[in-house]
Amino acid sequence: MRIEAASVNPLDWHYMRGSPYVMRFMSGLGAPKDSRLGADFAGVVEAVGKDVTTFAVGDGVFGTGKGAFGQYTTKHVDGSLAKIPPNVSFEQAAALPIAGITALQALRDHGQLQAGQRVLVNGASGGVGTFAVQLAKSLGATVTGVCSERNREMVLAIGADRVIDYRTSNYTESEEKYDLIIDMIGNHPMSANLDVLEPTGRLVIVGGKKGNWIGPLTNMLKEPFISPFVEQPVIVMLARPNGADLEELARLVETGDIEPVIDRRYSLQDVPAAIAYSEEGRARGKIIIDVR
To answer: How many beta carbons lie within 10 A of that of residue 147, not counting itself?
Structure first.
């Protein structure tokens, strides 16, 4: 595939820095085993293997792969790859894969969200959060977004029914109860989140605290010790990219049910600046790399 656009994810700089350190057992102890960065891409098929029938030269496609911060990449036909609908741009498609699939699987598969339920998205202004707010609304939920005051209007504009400023209010100390909490931030103990869940509610943890040793993996290590002693399901998830979910996300963009929120755009030679901005943790929605 000839890459037209890519997008930045926290995964990229976690891999680049080998942080948290336990990642280095998989990615390389002294340096990354694979120096190619970038996972989300959108582009055009330039060549196919002799047995490939699903995709053809000239097709617009998007998905996840290695080395998305480059001019070309390759992908197995059965991997996380899908066609781009005619009225979806390369930029929109590149924004979807990891963040969009994470939000979709958190709500639909792990959260089992139903129409009419109340969902809280902690981290509503980030890449996953902006998709989670829109997807929850498309599923018929009442959505509360937690973010900073500067992002309030944006989160309301993409569909949130209510916004809580985390700097002035602690949602875990409120009387409000939720059927589902999607937590991207990890700034409250699991027990505090469970206190504001309905007895039949579910807690889905996508991210966690920063830190070089365990960091975002803290909740993953805690979950097996907490789940047997609480009433509500606690799920610590990692997204599983696949072609079917990419097709579903592309369909939702095509129908207008969701629209990727783009914060900043960078050229290919400015990828270091794009990653540095992502590391600040203040991006609103997605950061796009315009490879062209």
So the answer is: 26
